[in-house]
Amino acid sequence: QAGLTQPPSVSKDLRQTATLTCTGNNDNVGNQGAAWLQQHQGHPPKLLSYRNNYRPSGISEKFSASWSGNTASLTITGLQPEDEADYYCTAWDSSLSAWVFGGGTKLTVL
Amino acid sequence: QVQLVESGGGVVQPGRSLRLSCAASGFLFYSYASHWVRQAPGKGLEWVAIISTDGGKRHYADSVQGRFTISRDDSKNTLYLQMNRLRAEDTAVYYCVREDWDYWGLGTLVTVSS
Question: What's the gap in Å between the CA of B20 and the closest CA on chain A?
Answer without folding.
Answer: 17
